[in-house]
From TrEMBL:
A cellular component annotation (GO) from this entry: mitochondrion
Taxonomic source organism: Silene vulgaris (Bladder campion)
Name under which the protein is recorded: Cytochrome c oxidase subunit 3
Signal peptide: none
Membrane topology of the entry: Multi-pass membrane protein
Domain Heme-copper oxidase subunit III family profile stretches: 1-201
Alphabetically ordered keywords of this record: Membrane, Mitochondrion, Translocase, Transmembrane, Transmembrane helix
Functional description taken from the UniProt entry: Component of the cytochrome c oxidase, the last enzyme in the mitochondrial electron transport chain which drives oxidative phosphorylation. The respiratory chain contains 3 multisubunit complexes succinate dehydrogenase (complex II, CII), ubiquinol-cytochrome c oxidoreductase (cytochrome b-c1 complex, complex III, CIII) and cytochrome c oxidase (complex IV, CIV), that cooperate to transfer electrons derived from NADH and succinate to molecular oxygen, creating an electrochemical gradient over the inner membrane that drives transmembrane transport and the ATP synthase.
Primary residence: membrane
Sequence intervals crossing the membrane: 6-21, 42-60, 88-106, 118-136, 156-179
UniProt-listed Gene3D superfamilies: 1.10.287.70, Cytochrome c oxidase, subunit III, four-helix bundle
GO BP, sorted A to Z: mitochondrial electron transport, cytochrome c to oxygen
Length: 201
């Protein structure tokens, strides 16, 4: 029954997105007012994600600034080996910043009407995202602690895990935009889907 429900949800998502793409590219129903509504809706979604991630950062900050007696009153808790922030975390930060520059390059290419450049920039962004995801997996594998190792492990794996999930969803979003750009669906006037993907990124 669960599998049937999941299949039904995936089918509904596919049909809904197919109809939205058809309405915007083939039928031209996405007027300026509709585009503005889509932008506002996506901005509200991003604000909700910011609050979601803020909760994890708050949990980590609160626990580190006022360590509880249960974890020995010190941070990081006794027995926890921490990751060196100048190794994989720093490299992943540089990769994400570079991918942000690449997606901005794609946006400028779309606005300039340079379809091939936009596709190249989106391919670069997706490749950087895949490298980031690979390094994130490697970091998880090498971490000297687990999710069950006190509040430190819990907040680390929850925050970075949901961020990794965010990156995977964003990567899929950008792959779809790259395919749409390749087929010429995104123009200077109609590229709200790409803008949403770039904002999400």
């Amino acid at each position: 029954l669960l599998s049937l429900g999941l299949l039904f949800i995936l089918y509904t998502m596919f049909v809904w997105w197919r109809d939205v793409l058809r309405e915007s590219t083939l039928e031209g129903h996405h007027t300026k007012v509709v585009q503005l509504g889509l932008r506002y809706g996506f901005i509200l979604f991003i604000v909700s994600e910011v609050m979601f991630f803020f909760a994890f950062f708050w949990a980590f900050s609160h626990s580190s600034l006022a360590p509880a007696v249960e974890i020995g009153g010190i941070w990081p808790p006794k027995g926890i080996g921490v990751l060196d922030p100048w190794e994989i975390p720093f490299l992943n930060t540089l990769i994400l910043l570079s991918s942000g520059a690449a997606v901005t390059w794609a946006h400028h290419a779309i606005l300039a009407g340079k379809q091939k450049r936009a596709v190249y920039a989106l391919v670069a962004t997706v490749l950087l995202a895949l490298v980031f995801t690979g390094f994130q997996g490697m970091e998880y594998y090498q971490a000297p602690f687990t999710i069950s190792d006190s509040i430190y492990g819990s907040t680390f794996f929850l925050a970075t895990g949901f961020h990794g999930f965010h990156v995977i969803i964003g990567t899929l979003f950008l792959i779809i935009c790259g395919i749409r750009q390749y087929f010429g669906h995104l123009t200077k006037e109609h590229h709200v889907g790409f803008e949403a993907a770039a904002w999400y990124w």
